[in-house]
Every structure is written in structure tokens, then in C-alpha cells.
């Protein structure tokens, strides 16, 4: 009996596999009335040499299968391709190339075509339509069934039928378009339906193949010289072929590299040579080779059809376990609580057998006790048979809650630690109720864990974050002006607050703060989207309010956004489009944002001086105002209040619950009056106490006596809303009585 053994997570596993199937025929099949070709078979040999080239090729010996001339029979080709599809894993790559003729039989409606193989007999096809290599077979039984990324290049006549069909018959659309539209399948097709194949004596190749070879040999390379399928297809399409080739290049087409340049001794010498300016290459990202696998795993988790098909009826958490099991193509999964050397199953998928897996779970329990937080995940193996991925989810004393995935696809395990990081983030989010934020949470976890993501994943995250922030709505919370008379109690202004749904009480802090994990581009984009949304929504709400005049509006902004001209242009544009006067807008700068340069960034003056000058210029040019927000919870609060050109100071509710709350509020009020007391300003700055409610230990009477006449919170009797409302007379009387010190 083989005893269980543990192998380190991230250790050597079966790597991603690449297959190339190259088919070429000069002579046609039996009874096929088509002219012979000159270069189809030599095209296959040339392409094989590039893919296996010792310097630039990315395919291994034995992974390139050729069907050439008389050996290119439809039966052997179909069996070979079908075997590849059935044994494929999500991280595998399949490249199929065909050079030759295609045939649309007379009895066909030209919505399908056959690749002409050595044994194709048109007379047999009428009775036995599957006695040949049909394009629909490739799409349905090969590319749809292939678990990884697949690519097709057709250098032949009638190739355009492959995509033209979906515009001509809805039945064919269902079988053809799915493969073409899916991001894992990409195609480059020689010519539209009805055209003849093109060969060139000058090139000694088919015309399309000639340009494919040029592209793969480096003509279509990126800055580092790598050639992806998408770059190859784009290059070929730009070569002026008439009619032009058809190509579809989705996500995997852009990320799957077919050839790349070597870093040989000659290259290293050239780079160091003073006479050669050389080239610039970014440092290799450790996740670069995992990009396709990560993207595919995200698709399997967050596509709507996958989520709906794998949500459990037993509860939200159980549905999450099943979703993870499916995404990893695993036998089963469970959440297990380890307590010392014992364990108990919290929830599980249907095929999880605790008794059978007990020896492996015991090993996992021991390892969890030894190294509870040393790694994001580990793998327990049972000889050469079974593997169990363990991802610790939470810790409480000697108890560890762990996600256990039994026999996941080896290609997924190849991802190593990134896989464990992703699974923990999925568990901590809510993919069923909020897939948009959940997927962004997963990408952010990768960002914070590994520091930098490959460019493709970074761009995907930016687009996803735009959608997440764009899905938010703006609600408006009133700032109340205090008075001892009920008629003097009124709404002074409104603050715009972001929410995921109308009526939601809390801000979506986790989504808003994600931007800081990604850097300035995300922060500025977040603030630009929200300020435009706030201004437009406020203009609509103000127009519907019915009262005379427009009350001021305040919107939160990060320090880094105020240093961005793009953000400020968005502010000006939104004000103009909404018809709001700039003087009605105040941008609130959070105390939680440091006013300091980023690492490596240089400011011409001391930080507060530089930022002061920046705000002064913006206030003069844009005619908007600035306030400090969250005073009492951030950086150098007194210095900010004293030195920045602010019109308002907003005190965080945490001050109200401080033992020296009155002393701190007194100090804030003195700083707010300082400029006016010195004759440097006509009016003191407005002080607003945020978060005031009935539980506040400091009374409105005490606040009012300090000269602070504005508060913001739930004392107005209503939660923040998408509409603007005046205060109810009963609320005005209640607030006035509290200001007077009456119970």
C-alpha cells in the first residue's frame, strides 16, 4: 500500500503542454476535380521548422505532428485530434494548420466545407457526410472540446465559410459562432468563401503561409521580440492580400506566444556593446507564464452561465465550494476544520468522501499545526495517485478552517502559490451575489501578494475596476446648520456618497480602497468616475427638489487625484455638462491620504508648501473650494488645517468618542477662526462635525457653544438618499431643542 506523502505547494508539476498538428496536400483526394497545388506540403515543412526552431520555437520535439501528402487521411487526422481534445487540460495549447483545397459538395448549402484529404471521395460524402474532415467537426468536436487555448490557420480556398456561415443560417450559427466567439479559440483564415487559394512562385509558398512565416520569424514581434497569435494574425492581415484574410484573435490570441527570440551569448555581447544601442526589455514578471491559466480560471469562476450552473441549493458557502470544485476541474471539494490533529467537515460537494480521504486529511492536519501561516497553500499526495490541495482560510487559536480540493487538474496546480491566493480571495468575497467585486478582489489579492501583475492582467483589472466603480450610485447626505430657533435649523449643503445600491447604509469601502493597492492610475480613475457621477446626479436631484437656489455640494477626493490634470479636467467637464456653478462644489481631501511624494518622485518644495500652492492655483483657476475631511484619524492634522487654503474642516466622528473630545473640538474651532482673527480672511472656516447621532457622548448644546454650527449625520431623521429633501418641521424643532440644551 502506498503511504501518503506531502509535497510542497508550488513544486514541480506537469507543465503546460503544446501540440501542433500540421496538414498539407499538393494532390487532391479521390475523384476531386480540383487542380493540384505546388507548395502546400513544403509549407507544412517550413512551418514545422519554425515551431521547432532551437532558437525561437516554443514547441518541443514530438509535440508537432505532420500529416503530409498520401499520409494525410481524414480518419487518422480526426482520431488524432479527438484524442488530443479529450486529454487536454485548461493550460494546454493546440495549434492546427492546413494547407490545401477545401470542398463544398453540390448537395451542400455551402454553410459547411471539407478539408480535402488524401482519401476524400465526394461520391461517398453524399451518403456518409462524416466520411471526411469537416470544418464543423473541427469547431464542435475539437475546439469546443479542447480545455485550453486553440488556434487554427487555414491557407486554402473556401476557408471563409468558417466564419461567413454564421451570417447565413441560424442553425450553423449555433455550431460555428460559439467557438469563434470564445476567448480560448482563435483563427486566421486565408480567404472568403468562393475564393481560390493563392500560391506564389516568387515566395515558393502559399501567399498567406509566406506572411505567417515572416511574422513568426520576428517581423510581428513585440518590444521583446515575442510573437503571439494575435500579433501574427494582425501582421498577415496588414500585408495587402486581396481579398484580405479573416482573423479572430481573442484573449488567448494576445497572450499565447508562438515564437520568441533567444538570449544567446551573441545577444548578450550585442547588448553590452557601446557601438550598439541595444534594446530595452522589462524584467520578467514571475506570473507571466501563468497569465493564460489565471485568466481562464477567472472565466470559469465568474462567467454568469458557470455561476448559475454550479450554485448549490444548500447555501451560499456550499455553492462557493462547488464553484471552486468546478473551476479547478476537481473530483470534489470541502471546507474542513482542523483542530490539532483532528478534523471535521464543515461543508462539502457531493463526491467528497471523508472516510476514503482520511489518511490524506490526517497528513494535512499535522502540516497545518506545524506551519499554520507559513504558506498560502500546500498539496498532500497519495503516492502517484491522488492529490489534495489545501488552502487555509482562517485561524482561531488552534483551529484552522481550510479549503480542501481533491484531485484538481494538474495544469491548475502548476500555477503554484497564485492559485492558493486566488482561492482564498474567492472564499473571502461573494462570487454569487457580487461577481464583479469578487473578481476584482481576486485580482487585487494577486497584486498585493506578488507586487506586479503581467500587463494583460493589469489592463483587465483596470477595465474591471472601471465597471465596478461605474456600477455605483451616488446618494446625498445633508449637512445641517444648527440654531436655537427651529426656523433657523436648515440644510446647509449636501455631501455625495458612493453606494452599490440605493438604501444601503454603509459605503463600499473595500471596493473604494482597492484603488490604493493598484496605484495612481486606479485612484485617479476612481475619483474621476465618482465626481462626474456625483455632479450629474446632484444636478438632476436639485432640479427635482423644488426649492429655490442650489445648495453647495461636497465630494471626496484623494490627494493624488488633485495632482492629476486629467482628474481636474473631468471635474470642469462634468460641471459644464451639468450646468452647475463651480463655486457650488467643494472637494474634500481625506486626512487618511498622506501629502507626500511617491517613492522616487520629487516635488519642487516641501510637501505641504507644494500642495498649498497647488490648491491655491486650482481654487483660482477652477473657482472651486477645498475642505479637509476625516480630521482626527490621519496625517499631521493641525498642520493641514493651519497651512492649506481650506474653506471647511470636517471632524471625524471618532473625535466625539474621545475622552478629550471637547478640548479637541475647541482646538479645531480656534484653528478655523485663526485666519479671520488675524485679519487674513473675511470669514472663519466652517467646521462640520461628521457622524453625529443620538449615541454621541458630546451634546449639540456643547458643540454649538464652541462656535461650531454645522453637523452631519443621522440626526436629520433620514438616511442618505438619491433625492434632496428639506428638513421636516418636527426634526427642526427637535434639533433646536437639543441646541438649547433641552432634553
What do you see in this structure?
The protein has 743 residues and is α/β, with parallel strands linked by helices. The chain has 2 domains: 18-270, 3-Layer(aba) Sandwich (Rossmann fold); 472-740, Alpha-Beta Barrel (TIM Barrel), CATH 3.20.20.450. The protein contains 28 helices and 27 strands. Strands 20-21-22-23-24-25-26-27 form an 8-stranded mixed barrel. A 6-stranded antiparallel sheet has the order 1-17-18-19-15-16. A 6-stranded mixed sheet has the order 3-2-4-8-9-13, sandwiched between helices. Strand 23 (585-590), helix 23 and strand 24 (625-631) form a beta-alpha-beta unit. Helix 17 (435-450) packs antiparallel against helix 18 and helix 19 (509-518) runs antiparallel to helix 20 (520-545). The longest helix has 26 residues, at 520-545. It is elongated and about 105 Å long. The termini are far apart. Residues 1-15, 158-179, 263-272 and 312-317 have low confidence and may be disordered.
Q: What order do the helices and strands come in, and which of them pair?
A:
Elements: E1 4-7, E2 18-24, H1 40-51, E3 64-68, H2 74-86, E4 93-100, E5 102-103, E6 114-115, H3 122-125, E7 133-134, H4 135-143, E8 149-156, H5 161-164, H6 170-181, E9 185-189, E10 199-200, E11 205-206, H7 207-219, E12 227-228, H8 229-237, E13 246-248, H9 251-255, E14 257-259, H10 265-272, H11 291-302, H12 304-310, H13 316-327, E15 332-339, E16 342-348, H14 354-370, E17 378-382, E18 386-396, E19 399-406, H15 410-413, H16 417-428, H17 435-450, H18 455-470, E20 473-481, E21 490-499, H19 509-518, H20 520-545, E22 553-557, H21 559-562, H22 565-578, E23 585-590, H23 607-622, E24 625-631, H24 637-643, E25 648-651, H25 653-656, H26 661-677, E26 686-692, H27 700-705, E27 710-713, H28 729-739
Parallel strand pairs: 2-3, 2-4, 4-8, 8-9, 21-22, 22-23, 23-24, 24-25, 25-26, 26-27
Antiparallel strand pairs: 1-17, 5-6, 6-7, 9-13, 10-11, 12-14, 15-16, 15-19, 17-18, 18-19, 20-21, 20-27
Helix pairs in contact: 1-7, 4-6, 7-8, 11-13, 16-17, 17-18, 17-19, 18-20, 19-20, 20-22
